[in-house]
Amino acid sequence: MKKLLPFLFITCLFFMAFQCEDDNISTQESEQKALNASKKAIEDLAATSICNDTYECHFIALGSKPCGGPWGYVVYSTSIDTEKLEKMVETHNKKETDYNKKWGVASDCMFVMPPTSVNCENNNCIAVY
């Protein structure tokens, strides 16, 4: 029995060590959900912006295609916290770049053209292509 006790103790430690690691492993699906949530938060913040004589309209590239370039553009105005939006977009784009490399994601390699301009219509910023 004395010889069996250390073996059981080491075996228990071994299984406990690997059990903890499994909790920290991210899956492609969980990372994609996090990216989707991040994109939605960015779009939701941009959607709260208004434009008028005081606030100007702008756009920012959002996403990171595996071949390079953004997936699209988000239109917003200076009525919101633009620094916050820009940081959110920068973080999102970096995470998507890392995601694409990690999981070997493929996509079309078409370049998405930015808006030629953004206009203010009915207090909403509208992209013109």
What do these coordinates show?
The protein has 129 residues and is of the alpha+beta class. The chain has one domain. It has 3 helices and 4 strands, in the order H-H-E-E-H-E-E. The strands form 2 sheets. The protein has a two-stranded antiparallel ribbon. Strands 3-4 form a two-stranded antiparallel sheet. A hairpin with a 2-residue loop joins strand 3 and strand 4. Helix 2 packs antiparallel against helix 3. The termini are far apart. The mean pLDDT is 89.
Concise synopsis of the structure shown:
The chain is an alpha+beta fold and 129 residues long.
Keywords:
129 residues, alpha+beta, two-stranded antiparallel sheet, 3 helices, globular, signal
Order of helices and strands: HHEEHEE
Which strand order do you get reading across the main beta sheet?
Answer: 1-2
Please tally the β strands and state the result: 4
Give the overall shape, derived from the CA principal axes.
globular
Radius of gyration, taken over Cα atoms and rounded to an integer in Å: 23 Å
Low-pLDDT runs: none
Distance between the termini: 79 Å
Number of domains: 1
Strand pairing plus helix content: what structural class? alpha+beta
Secondary structure layout:
Blueprint: H1 4-24, H2 28-47, E1 57-62, E2 72-77, H3 82-103, E3 117-121, E4 124-128
Helix pairs in contact: 2-3
